Amino acid sequence: MKKGRLEAFSDGVIAIIITIMVLELKVPHSADIKALEESVPVFLSYLLSFIYVGIYWNNHHHMLYLVEKINGRVLWANLSLLFFLSLIPFVTAWMGENHFAKWPVIFYGFALLANAIAYSILALFLVADSHANSPLADAIGKDWKGKASIVIYITGIVAAFQWPIIGMACYIIVAMIWFIPDNRIERRVSER
């Protein structure tokens, strides 16, 4: 199967996810600066989630650029990733509206963890379906960033039971790790 429909569908779903998140930002009912200050947790939640969705979109784009064709299991793995990405607006709004309280931060972490696992499975399937020396297999390598992310998410979730701020710090660390696209994939993309 050609990959064009998968890319177009994924781009559309991700665009809708971002749209839903931005629609959750409510305009203050007052022109007073105090009203704006009350929106800070909501905006910070939105900002972090926007960065995460952008990271997934960027890396998904680069990863698919390096493959020629896909199969049914890749379609399902991609759909799984899109499902977990679609949960981001819900947990983002819950966390922001509740000022980073324990349970929203824990569930936000679970959503991020589920996305990381789904993305890793998609990458695994794409690599398995290409030859051993393919540009994608070479670029992903041992996927230390993916494995480290999962460990940090789990650490953040566990820490959030006692200290939600530490959980949030863990989630921010993972975003920082992934913010700049992987040089190995960037190099392979530029070679093509």
From TrEMBL:
One GO cellular component term: membrane
Main location: membrane
InterPro entries xrefs: TMEM175-like
Substrates-to-products reaction catalysed: K(+)(in) = K(+)(out)
UniProt keywords, alphabetically: Ion channel, Ion transport, Membrane, Potassium, Potassium channel, Potassium transport, Transmembrane, Transmembrane helix, Transport
PANTHER family, alphabetized: ENDOSOMAL/LYSOSOMAL POTASSIUM CHANNEL TMEM175 (PTHR31462), ENDOSOMAL_LYSOSOMAL PROTON CHANNEL TMEM175 (PTHR31462:SF5)
Family: Belongs to the TMEM175 family.
Record-given protein name: DUF1211 domain-containing protein
Organism: Mucilaginibacter ginkgonis
